[in-house]
């Protein structure tokens, strides 16, 4: 994520980044007309396409699955299956299952089932997820290690597990000038023991609970806690900026003139922001001037605008 704080018309230099990992896996169960399993494949990772990394920013729900009979190796620049044969008849909202992975990955996974009814005979070699009416606008593509035949008397259930993997390490910056003084900045996930995420399919949006939109006058917390000290906040939903292709998603937070004015002092040291990949906490430490070790000065004469920008890419399934 990129954070661009400002006081009125003052911004710090652009370049503070935070990154979220994404991963997907497919599993197939072929059934007879009585619903009994006649063939199963193990969980296997898919390739999230470059196209998918773009469309998830503005179309974060995968509504359909398509299958085909092309077995060429997936490559990132593809936007569709090699040879699509059929699209699932149901939405992945059905039979979903959420899974929270604690330490050491702290990832969130959602599994959905996509069903293909009997009546069509085909060789199943490839599959991919996509928005509801856009089978040629694929998020991901997977080629089976061992293809199989689906007869007219078979039901095919395809399960797709999508995971969001939050970054666990600190991002640190030194000597960032704000209002004429230098600051050290620490960016870190927060409260990762809480499964507060909306959905593993909708990662590019700022989310509730608003109780995690706060400012603190104490130290930054660990990855499983929130910052210390007196807190205030709940400033409401941010403004989402337009997504730039092959780039990042920006989100504007505004701490207004009357917000965040702590009765215990005039400095806001840490901020927390609820995001679907993880709640993010950011600490500002002055390293020059009269208030070394303190945060950003804040009273009724100042407002702060912070622009979070999340980058994302292919990660390892938990």
**Which structural class should the secondary elements be placed in?**
mainly beta
Strand content: 35-45%
How many individual β-strands? 24
Dominant shape:
elongated
Low-pLDDT segments, ≥5 res: 196-200
Largest sheet properties:
11 strands, mixed
Q: How helical, in percent, are the residues?
A: under 10%
The oligomerization state is single chain
Radius of gyration: 23 Å
Mean pLDDT: 82
Count of DSSP-assigned helices: 1
Q: What is the end-to-end distance?
A: 22 Å
**How many structurally independent domains?**
2
Order of helices and strands: EEEEEEHEEEEEEEEEEEEEEEEEE
Summarize the model shown.
With 318 residues, this protein is mostly beta strands.
What does this structure look like?
The protein has 318 residues and is mainly beta. It has two domains: 6-19 and 168-313, no CATH class; 21-165, no CATH class. The chain has one helix and 24 strands. The protein has one helix spanning 50-58; strands spanning 6-7, 10-11, 18-31, 37-40, 44-45, 47-48, 64-68, 84-87, 97-100, 108-116, 122-130, 140-150, 155-165, 171-178, 181-190, 214-216, 231-233, 239-240, 249-255, 267-268, 270-273, 279-286, 296-297, 304-314.
Main features:
single chain, 318 residues, mainly beta, 11-stranded mixed sheet, 6-stranded antiparallel sheet, 24 strands, elongated
């Amino acid at each position: 994520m990129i954070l661009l704080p400002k006081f009125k018309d003052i911004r710090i230099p652009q370049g503070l980044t935070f990154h979220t990992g994404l991963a997907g896996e497919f599993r197939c169960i072929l059934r007879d007309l009585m619903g009994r399993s006649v063939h199963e494949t193990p969980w296997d990772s898919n390739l999230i396409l470059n196209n998918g990394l773009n469309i998830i920013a503005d179309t974060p729900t995968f509504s359909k699955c398509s299958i085909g009979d092309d077995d060429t190796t997936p490559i990132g620049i593809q936007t569709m299956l090699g040879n699509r044969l059929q699209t699932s008849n149901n939405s992945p909202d059905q039979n979903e299952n959420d899974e929270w992975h604690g330490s050491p990955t702290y990832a969130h996974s959602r599994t959905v089932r996509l069903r293909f009814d009997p009546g069509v005979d085909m060789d199943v070699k490839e599959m991919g997820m996509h928005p509801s009416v856009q089978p040629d606008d694929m998020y991901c593509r997977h080629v089976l290690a061992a293809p199989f035949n689906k007869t007219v008397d078979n039901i095919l259930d395809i399960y797709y597990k999508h995971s969001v993997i939050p970054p666990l390490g600190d991002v640190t910056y030194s000597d960032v000038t704000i209002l004429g003084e230098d600051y050290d900045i620490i960016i870190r996930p927060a409260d990762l023991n809480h499964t507060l995420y909306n959905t593993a399919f909708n990662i590019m949006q700022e989310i509730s609970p608003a109780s995690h939109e706060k400012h603190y006058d104490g130290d930054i917390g660990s990855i499983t806690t929130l910052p210390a000290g007196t807190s205030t906040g709940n400033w409401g939903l941010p403004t989402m900026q337009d997504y730039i292709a092959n780039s990042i998603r920006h989100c504007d937070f505004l701490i207004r003139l009357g917000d965040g004015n702590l009765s215990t002092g005039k400095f806001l040291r840490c901020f927390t922001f609820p995001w679907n990949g993880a709640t993010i906490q950011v600490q500002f430490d002055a390293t020059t001037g009269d208030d070394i070790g303190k945060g950003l000065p804040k009273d009724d004469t100042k407002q702060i605008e912070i622009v979070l920008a999340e980058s994302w890419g292919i990660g390892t399934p938990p």
